[in-house]
Amino acid sequence: MQVITREQLIEKAVSLLAANTVSCVLGWSRGEFDYDVSPAVFRSEEEVRRNFVWNDFCGANMSKYLISKASGVDGKILVFLKPCDTYSFNQLLTEHKFDREKVYVVAVPCDGMADFRLIKKVCGEGIISIDSEDAILKVKTLYSDSPISVPLTDVLAERCKNCKSKKHVAYDELLGEDGNVLESGRFDEVKKLEAMTAEERFEFWQNELSRCIRCNACRDVCPACTCEKCVFNNPSSGVENKAAANSFEEKLFHIIRAFHVAGRCTDCGECSRVCPQNIPLHLLNRKFIKDINEFYGEYQAGEEIGLRAPLTDYTTEDIEPCEIFHRRDTDA
Amino acid sequence: MRKCSLSEINSVFAEISKSMTLYLPVDGSDGSSAFSQWTEGVKWSESLNTTKSPKDFFFPQTEDLMAFKTSGKNIELTDIRKESEDFVVFGVRACDVRSFDILDRVFLSEPCDSYYATRREHSVIISVACSHPSETCFCTSFGISPENPDGDISAWKTDTEVYFSPNTEKGALLMDKLSSVTEECSDEAVVKQKEEISKICSRLPNSKVDTNTFGGGKTAELFDSPLWDKLSEACLGCGTCTFVCPTCQCYDIKDFNTGNGVIRYRCWDSCMYSEFTKMAHGNNRLTQKERFRQRFMHKLVYFPENNDGIFGCVGCGRCLAKCPISMNIVKVMKKFGGEKSEK
Amino acid sequence: MQMKEHKPLIVAFCCNWCSYAGADLAGNNRLNYPAEVKVIRVPCSCRVNPMFVLRAFQRGADGVIICGCHPGDCHYVSGNYYTRRRMAMLFSMLDYLGIEKERTRIEWVSAAEGAKFAATMNDFVETVAKLGENKRLEDLRCK
Amino acid sequence: MNNKNLREEVLRISGVNPKKCMRCGKCSATCPAYDEMEYHPHQFVYMVESGDISSLLDSESLYRCLSCFACIDRCPRNVEPAKLVEAIRLSKIRKQGANHMTANDVPALLDEDMPQQAIVSAFRKYSK
Amino acid sequence: MQRIGVFVCWCGSNIAGTVDVKAVAEALKNEPGVVFSTNYQYMCSQAGQDMIKAAIAGHKLGGIVVCSCSPRMHEATFRKTASQAGINPYMVEIANIREQCSWVHKDMATGTEKAIILGKAAVAKVNLNTPLTPGESPVTKRALVIGGGIAGIQTALDIADAGFPVDIVETKPTIGGKMAQLDKTFPTLDCAACILTPKMVEVAQHENIRIFSYSEVSEIKGFVGNFDVTIKRKARYVKEDICTGCGACVEKCPMKKIPNEFNLGMDNRSAVYIPFAQAVPKVATIDPNACNMLKNGRCGICAKVCTAGAIDYTQKDEYIEEKYGAIVAATGFNPISMDKFDEFAYSQSKDVITSLEFERLTNAAGPTAGKLLRPSDGKHPHTIVFVQCVGSRCSACTEKGKEYCSKICCMYTAKHAMLTRDKYPDTEVYVFYIDVRTPGKNFDEFYRRAVEEYGVNYIKGMVGKVTPEGSKLKVQASDLIANKQLHIDADLVVLAAAIEPDKSARPLATMLTASMDTNDFFTEAHPKLRPVESPTAGVFLSGTCQGPKDIPETVSQAGAAASKVIGLLAKDKLTGNPCIAKSDEWMCNGCSSCGKVCAYGAITYEEKEFRLPDRTTKIRRVASVNPAVCQGCGACTVTCPSGAMDLNGFTTTQIMAEVDAICK
User: Which subunits have 3 or more CB–CB pairs within 8 Å of chain E?
Assistant: First the structure.
């Protein structure tokens, strides 16, 4: 259950459309089930009323769509952004990815989004409907006579359990009340890995990354991956690989991708959400974020427009690479 | 019909493994299942379906075809195929079994793909009926019976027993080998399960998805439909749907420079990728809409047109579960009016 | 065969202005270091892309070392400062993935430090030799 | 504890790096208790750096420092001499458990006029 | 694939002693692309070079690999050879088999094996080499000097004397800078005005120099050789070409209570003013914030008294656009604010002054006509305390002081102390110091004279507190050597304030894309070898904008900067290094990371229209590299995630080919 209701968002969209403030709306569209929500552009009141949806499954980060959708419209495009989406929004603006003037941002508070994989874990296959009331999901399935009640907190997506911020860092208009930047345990898993031996870490990642099927969903959904042509698609880059042939290529792809977004990744968690193989890709990005915070000072990509990413910056006193291991070894 | 108690199923696996490599769905650390080799201690997954389809066994994601070795200015070509051995794939669902027929039509038609053919010849498929289909399932729309899976041997799993019934000579041969760990039985329980499954199938949310709007000869009607714009609007252009799909069979052949030679390999390709079928003149399909349309037109129009009306989709529902933006073939079919009765 | 000591292959990226000159000076002074070290000349250490490091491992290198001017002495003002951040990040990530951290190194070698160049290479080869073959970041196709 | 260990202890407690001192003497110049002291703030810093802690421990200067922190405020190098003084006081207190008094000795010294706070802090000090 | 020739050098026995050169030549013969391979005793000799030339012609070679000594030795030689033989000089690669092979390995087998691998890497690289041509750009033969202090003046004069036109832009109404405010100069005690004003006059009269006083640089575009600069000439409400500098307006101006900046506010000037008698240009300027006529239209006396008719109340700011080939930053310094140093009571007592104020107090043209009198009561001070290092070497608080040594304070304090004792032997003079730093010709002698001959009391230790009490200043200080706390009743306290770069330097650096350090001093291209150049090509540094320095040092740096400028302007066109970055506009996504890491400001972004394969057009932001400015470090190439940025001569594929060859 989200604080702001679907109806409120629809009324907001409809009124902005009617006032010609915006000419279309970027939001979430209902699917076949209650959980398979798709991003969509709505062009009329009728479309909005019929298909617009706002529920516990609107995890998709709309910011990246603005790159392609904001340029094509006459007038402005309305976009609804959750707190974490606004960080991506700012980061994209920092990188000149679209025209801010073309976008009207309505900030929507978010209570965290559910991960339907976790619901399936609890309720099994055959989910027919999911209703949400007071942070309890009522799940009807083909195989249970009565609806199964699942607290939203139990099935929150990992990124929402470790939500870094309920604060919107960009908007034209805010619905409801804005939250705060949160103290989260988002680095706990990283720390756990760091505490392992190199052998254990190697085993861990070998197991995770070997599942990678190189579908590129993580890259294609990532708001930081906005290259005209990815090096992994470019035959003249020398590192192109269409399908991961072996464990080296899986590692190469994920290391380089994490490196390319290092300092630009806002930790929106879309990569892990979309991975069909449930690889915890966010743990790679968070490692970089944690390292950056520790070595070069706290930095949150997208917090403000125009921030200089840590890897395009330096101080003369930066830590030496060998010092990193030394420091960690002595801390341990 | 023969059966084995569910608690003793490992003895069946052990028996098979004596002579052949056995693969079956196994739960991974992330909670989803994948086909893995059975060894002592490995547990058969309870899951309905694996994330990646079993097409990997015959049409692997990447496959080295041949190698070139350079020494000085000489090039030496080597066939790097390994000797194929018999293997058993256990626990294949009805939809996936059907997918092999679809793949066969592509790879076994002339010119026959010998890499694929060898592996098909060496395989024994043991299918298993779906006692608990998911909301994403719509195999019945393609005339597949989840209660009656094909394969060399069909199997049914109840709460206590696993039942087997061979369909082919290969299957019968394997069943003979399993005589010591299975016993002859009546098909009473199986019949009962089949009825139950049929009942559930009629209640599946996607059971009414209809293929009537599609099929061979519909190209002109569907190709320029304005609906594609809206449907493809959010498509990211990733290859998830094609890579989890049991019937997607597009591949690319590439050379890998190893530093002291070249390995020519083939790997899955995806029509969703902007580089797909790029040629000297450029791309055939320049926009994501065209690429998106290609995938569905291929499965629902072009493939049946060239293959006696057989659709290139088996309704396994993997793309429904895995698409990052939840756009999928069911939504496409319904949008074009492919639904049996008014909802 | 098993008993034979592993001869590690080391790729050293050296910046043209300091470290490559330092390597030349080691030569001028006839300071020995193992022939397993092969130097690739780059204009500045900041030209070293993480992809080059991974490429070397893929192709069979057992260790990769990057040498540049001392911080503050970069011929291009700030190049090595960027190198320092990038490689700190990359090396930390490789370690996080369980790759032996001793296989990667960064060292600041000035044009006057021929002895340091030779000593660094001797030490690095010795360290990497102890680890044996690079198994965790190898590509079997390149064997 | 030898002087070296003592020095380490003082540095650890205070968190001060006396090496930063460039001997400008602004701390002593600014110190209101200068005339009362045997060792002046800048000497404190120098003596800690050179490891001569025992003289400081025995010096009354320790208790002449008012902890006004003027030296900290004025120091151009952020050396923070007052923190060193405080650290040496603490070292002294910590040693006293062994050398001088224990908590058990406190009751005998109590009298009616003694403020409650002093009693509590005495126990706190000497029970260490 | 290229047709490659391989040339293995023996270097006498230097290489051939540990490397089987014949085996190397033989092994490399089989490498892809190699059509010719040979060895020779001395490839760098005339005979060796002729051999290469003959092979290039005879075998139609497109690229060559020379296995020899370090490319740092003979790359240029062999490039020239190739060029003479008619192939592009950048089609040459050197395999360093001497310094990095034969000289460091003892064993013939090992050496030969490694030499072959290094040769293979060079062959693999040259296979991917492309002919490179250095870019050329014309040079505008005019220099701009920003700042009209002694640094700017000297630089301008030196450039102008060499025959190139120079413009000086100065924000103040007159040139002269800080030096014009000084009384005497150490260690010779020349009068500053006596040595500066002739130079100022020379500038004014020089046919090659234009002075834009009371002006600012408002925009800089372009690059080395081709800067487009917009200069804002602030309205001074006096026609510069007509004003004779007679001073009648100044005399009659009724607004006479305006703090005089030139005397640091220690006396007053009028609303229309000439900063000092020897100002250049010697023209009046009306202060728009003080002039009644400009504020409310009530006055106009100056226009009435001006016989030349130079007053023009309607004047507006004027923008001049000019092209330059080189720009010299000479923006100078200021003493830091003393407001945060409460302990010295600067803001509480008029009698606590900075050294620059002391200069004005002792200057014959200053507020007291050179008599040393206390600002508070105009009495002669009998006890003067000088405090050194106020705000210098202060790492405690960056808002308060500066971490660096301001360099000049020791010497001018010695000068002040000495002159005070010289003129007024009855004064007690104390100097409190942390260290006395006197490296410089005759500097230490000067300081010793202050102590030994003039009896200045130098005390090691800092002043901790200054408390105004009645007419006295109670100075509490420490004498570290005597181990005493001192209490001095002083009449005047002089603070040697740290110096910091002028505030205009930071925005100027941004316009120039020149880099600065954390203290806002301009960074030099190399601290030792290129100390007067900015890393940004065509930008040069003169004087204290680069770091604290005294007058002789400033003048010598000014001359050095001028000689660099002359060297640049003497060229008709600039030939660049072709091994520079290039941006593939089709791949660039305009994220602008590359520009952030470019130390030279060589990367600019523009919105460009692209025709896509589907015949639509798209406007995208893309990076482009200015070949005249790029130095070819490659920092941008790694920052670019898509690989749109690559480096000629060291392309990604070339380096990877080398890696591959080595790891074979």
Answer: A, B, C, D
**With a CB-CB cutoff of 8 Å, which residues 474-503 of chain E face chain D?**
476-480, 483, 485-486
Mutation to test the C interface, candidates B68, B257, B258, B262, most C Cβ within 10 Å: B258
Q: How many domains does chain C have?
A: 1
**Contact criterion met (CB below 8 Å) for E19 and E111:** yes
Facing residues of E604 across strands? E624
D3-100: CATH architecture:
Orthogonal Bundle (1.10)
B75 touches chain E (CB under 8 A): no
Q: Is residue B263 part of a domain?
A: no
The torsion angle over the Cα atoms of residues C80, C85, C86 and C91, rounded to 10 degrees, is 120
Residue of C nearest to E120 (CA): C38
User: A1 pLDDT band (50/70/90 cuts)?
Assistant: low
Q: Give the pLDDT score at C77.
A: 81
Are B232 and B199 members of one domain?
Answer: no
- Per the structure, the complete domain to which residue B236 belongs is given by 219-250+270-335
Q: Which domains does chain E have, with CATH numbers?
A: 4-126 (3.40.50), 143-332+504-569 (3.50.50.60), 335-500 (3.50.50.60), 581-648 (3.30.70.3270)
What are the sequence ranges of the domains in chain A?
6-113+165-174, 117-151, 188-331
Residues B198 and B235 in one domain: no
Domain assignment of residue C28, yes or no: yes
Domain count, chain B: 2
- The number of C-beta contacts closer than 8 angstroms across B and E is 18
Quote the ipTM score: 0.85
CA pair distance E603, E590, nearest whole angstrom: 11
Interface check C35 vs E, CB under 8 A:
yes
Q: Does C40 touch chain E (CB under 8 A)?
A: yes
Residue C5 belongs to a domain: no
Measure the CA–CA gap between A104 and A160, rounded to whole angstroms: 25
> Could you report the per-residue pLDDT of B155-207, keeping only the tens digit for each?
999 999 999 999 999 999 999 999 999 999 999 999 999 999 999 999 999 98
pTM of the model: 0.80
SS3 E212: strand
- Please count the residue pairs, one from chain A and one from chain E, whose beta carbons lie less than 8 angstroms apart: 56
Identify whether residues B197 and B230 lie together within a single domain.
Answer: no
Instruction: Output DSSP code: residue B81.
Output: P
According to DSSP H, which parts of chain C are helical? 19-28, 50-58, 79-96, 114-131
Is E30 an 8 Å CB contact of chain B? Answer: yes
Establish if B72 belongs to a structural domain.
no
Same domain, B279 and B329: yes
Whether residue C4 lies inside any domain: the answer is no
Answer yes or no: do A277 and B30 touch at CB < 8 A.
Answer: yes
Give me the phi and psi of A41, to 5 degrees please.
Answer: -105, 125
Is there a contact between C35 and E113 (Cβ–Cβ < 8 Å)? Answer: yes
Mean pLDDT in residue range D105-113: 79
Per-residue pLDDT, averaged over B299-315, amounts to 95
Does residue B213 lie in a domain region?
A: no
Q: Which residues contact E472 (CB under 8 A, 6 or more apart)?
A: E489, E490, E491
Residues in chain C closer than 8 A to A190 (CB atoms)? 96
- For C140, counting Cβ atoms within 10 Å of its Cβ (0-12 exposed, 13-18 middle, 19+ buried), the class is exposed
